[in-house]
Amino acid sequence: MGLTIGVDIGGTKIAAGVVDEEGTILEKHTVPTPPTADAIVEAICAAVTAAGKGHDIEAVGIGAAGYVDDKRATVLFAPNINWRHEPLKDKVEQRVGLPVVVENDANAAAWGEYRFGAGQGHDDVICITLGTGLGGGIIIGNKLRRGRFGVAAEFGHIRVVPDGLLCGCGSQGCWEQYASGRALVRYARQRAMATPENAEILLALGDGTPEGIEGKHISAAAREGDKVAVDSFRELARWAGAGLADLASLFDPSAFIVGGGVSDEGELVLDPIRKSFRRWLIGAQWRPHAQVLAAQLGGKAGLVGAADLARQG
Amino acid sequence: MGLTIGVDIGGTKIAAGVVDEEGTILEKHTVPTPPTADAIVEAICAAVTAAGKGHDIEAVGIGAAGYVDDKRATVLFAPNINWRHEPLKDKVEQRVGLPVVVENDANAAAWGEYRFGAGQGHDDVICITLGTGLGGGIIIGNKLRRGRFGVAAEFGHIRVVPDGLLCGCGSQGCWEQYASGRALVRYARQRAMATPENAEILLALGDGTPEGIEGKHISAAAREGDKVAVDSFRELARWAGAGLADLASLFDPSAFIVGGGVSDEGELVLDPIRKSFRRWLIGAQWRPHAQVLAAQLGGKAGLVGAADLARQG
Amino acid sequence: MGLTIGVDIGGTKIAAGVVDEEGTILEKHTVPTPPTADAIVEAICAAVTAAGKGHDIEAVGIGAAGYVDDKRATVLFAPNINWRHEPLKDKVEQRVGLPVVVENDANAAAWGEYRFGAGQGHDDVICITLGTGLGGGIIIGNKLRRGRFGVAAEFGHIRVVPDGLLCGCGSQGCWEQYASGRALVRYARQRAMATPENAEILLALGDGTPEGIEGKHISAAAREGDKVAVDSFRELARWAGAGLADLASLFDPSAFIVGGGVSDEGELVLDPIRKSFRRWLIGAQWRPHAQVLAAQLGGKAGLVGAADLARQG
Amino acid sequence: MGLTIGVDIGGTKIAAGVVDEEGTILEKHTVPTPPTADAIVEAICAAVTAAGKGHDIEAVGIGAAGYVDDKRATVLFAPNINWRHEPLKDKVEQRVGLPVVVENDANAAAWGEYRFGAGQGHDDVICITLGTGLGGGIIIGNKLRRGRFGVAAEFGHIRVVPDGLLCGCGSQGCWEQYASGRALVRYARQRAMATPENAEILLALGDGTPEGIEGKHISAAAREGDKVAVDSFRELARWAGAGLADLASLFDPSAFIVGGGVSDEGELVLDPIRKSFRRWLIGAQWRPHAQVLAAQLGGKAGLVGAADLARQG
């Protein structure tokens, strides 16, 4: 017994997956992401209905980028979709006839890793997701901690550089400006501009100009030993590790899980993050150290986590 | 039924207080703080025994500066006392014959405020203590959150300035170097040095030199409108509020409680902290805002909190 | 004897003025700034010819934004015009039949102020121009110091915040991102967003939104005491003054001259700059302090300075 | 014709050397540095008299740490000696009966390198001295530039990190806190504390503890490939090179000369400084780049430079 559907809303497609109690995706249905806020609600419902056909579904969990309220019902604000105080739970429940739980997508991914991925066996886990930006989730005492108003774990927006880089959130110096896929690309472009002779492999993978460098080029070039690419990963890791050290001072978890597209590079990025974490960890000689683990579920963590959160009710 | 003893270990004296279920201190006994680590253990036991005489005591809670392990038994490291992996719980239990709980002192104070002070009625509270340094405690879901290994909530040591001021912890740029009583004195001395004509009241309260400025002078001068004193509080508040905004991004509590000696100045410091908090709060227009409250228990928060934690077992 | 023509190349118009030995503009001719690099050269020549008609002109001085080589002949790079290694001196000399000197526009303005404005009587002067960006010029020993290769005095691009704001130059944390007209607008918008109740006058001057705030609104609102506007000028002054303190450590001039559009506000911005300068000046008690003076020539400093530099040959 | 004496005042000894027009030291006399301000004046005179015996001396140049006034006569402030407005020129002239010129020691060393060392053939040179702290000198147009009041070229005290490390000067974030021998030791100790397994060679050279690490150990360990030692030099070079890039934006010299004890390591430190300089140089593709050269005169640059400045009168 006990199938639920998890929904992942991406920039180009919306995926709805039927997930069992072990976190296995039995069936998945995707639809293109439409351009307007209302149409996205329709598309979510369509994907859920299509995926659930022929299954006995108990509930639906939706992972959405942005602020979700403490009732897990309303999207207060979404950065990429024009949702403002959007009653997503009610709308979807009415159309699909199933109980719906809405969750911040990074929270959902954190929960997925905690339940079925790298976090298994840990009671207190902090996940960070290094994607285009930087998100994350907090598990303390085996529960997802969402904050009093539902908007906790916005890791990407703690200020790590006073008067630092402008962030899309309107503030300056946010962590995600220094530790994210977007930051990685910036590091590589700046370095390739300053020292092109150290970026020959990297530049050859794109159009030959610093501006033409994209994330995938940096990964490929780093694996071939391109100096600028390797240094760019190190710079990212320097900031990621220092931030994890701050989170250790605050949360003292037994494990950090590093997910998101950037972490797909595995030890290329995990190893320098661990070193930086250890470099900056306060009181390192007097305390047990949290492990820094690679996420295991990849891109499906959010969908699986959302489905499992729906199951928990 | 249900008296417990709370112990507060200060730099000059150790206080043991008998506390009832309402958080009232029925009786308090203090002894001078001896110079050596072993003698301090003895002094704690003596204070507990003296305070408990004639009362029916169930348990003892000790608040200690430093890292306390997850079993609330061992002081892993104390910054001011030469305790390293000190089995304080066992030692005191053996001598006083009562169950003992050891807790980080800032955690104990946070718990005191949550139970009997400004935090009453809130489920999710973050306390910060602006004393000589900066400490704090985390209450989520009505429980004190100590981290997996007992050393969470070391707020004072998150890095707010990369390559910033040296900290006693060995790292650089720690929050407590910018938001604490010690920071306040530094701000005032630097400003009085640069613009003595704006610090006439302040300088007159000390020995006339910038080096002679102490914390109490700054408070007194600020109340009289001394420009340097007022600006020094604002600078402190600027950093305190910006840090609270970060903690809101992470924990999203319903209230922050600001305690410690610096907060004794009340609105003189609370008001600019609130403004700075609001200035830097991310997504301010899309989320409910945490309240920023003054602590209510003053210097007894730690003792009362430790006693109550001992009662909870 | 001795009339020369100074040329000022603005974003919307090009001005050529006939200037005498006292720095007086006898006649001025302006033409619209055309869109292409070649057409701008033509327009310069046309303006010079028109202005010079009926005068006995000895030489022409052209102030151009960007890098000008050490021979004062070639524009190596212009940020706003597509000039790259542009032989401007040769081109204009061929067409107007007069000796031509090309100079960086901020250098020209500095020279103008030194010769005929606030810098008269000083041998060692540093000028900064707070316009949209931040430029400046160096006079040491009564000579304009251009550097070995002609590109000295790029004050706006010294790094004042490591890992700070992105700059148009490709680097991060450049001074002009913190002390310039553009920075002033950013400060006002951020503050008006965070605390609109403190920006009522300011917001009413624009379209009512933070994004609608422009520089002229901030000046007007500050004069009426609008808190956000005043605080925005203070923030700008904080950075401007701290940078001047650095320049004092390096150059130790007898005077700083602050020009550019932002400085048109006079004491509203000069007074806090002086205070910040004094706050950050190193060794303040052991050294004579440079004066911080308002520029006197306003927008014509560059034209007059260029003309005078042409006269000097 | 034309022998002069140069004087170098060190922490442990005072050296007076007879120098000819080619910058060759013909004879040198040293005396221990006495503890009091007056005694140091006596010792200088004694050393000069002893060194000059049997030579036909024209003048004496004294290099002194601290602020020297624009008349090159009075030490306004010395950081290590209790000289405050000390009329050193008059006192020494009276006793030795020769014309005396007083100069800031880093200025003297810069002049020495310009005249007889790495700066020969350059008209515009910036020297930085990476010793315990960071000093330097400015040569523009073949003249030493001392500022209007004599206190220019205090490179070590420009602010490179807002709210950064405390400096002995009373300010924060000064360049010399990040690029100097003292900074190098701090880097090595911090890293050896965090990752002792990467500092085995380094730790073995001292007493085995991070606190026991000294500058000479870092040099020796770096030459053997010790990771912490190499990384510490890189960190120093990162800050040194970024600062040189700022100086290039300001002064645009044809060469930088890097001297001082740290630079004795040669390419070990010069090579990463050059890379960092290039990484941060603004407008790098549009301008000729200054060379970054190793100083050639070592510890005698100050004495030789002071002697030569005395010759120039």
UniProtKB/TrEMBL annotation, chains A, B, C, D:
GO molecular function: glucokinase activity
Pfam families cross-referenced by the UniProt entry: ROK
Broadest EC class assigned to this enzyme: transferase
PROSITE patterns on file: ROK
InterPro entries referenced in this protein's UniProt entry, alphabetically: ATPase_NBD (IPR043129), ROK (IPR000600), ROK_cs (IPR049874), ROK_glcA (IPR004654)
Enzyme Commission number, as recorded: 2.7.1.2
Superkingdom as given in the UniProt entry: Bacteria
Sorted UniProt keywords: ATP-binding, Kinase, Nucleotide-binding, Transferase
Gene3D superfamilies, per the entry: 3.30.420.40
Family according to the record: Belongs to the ROK (NagC/XylR) family.
Protein name per the record: Glucokinase
Organism: Streptomyces formicae
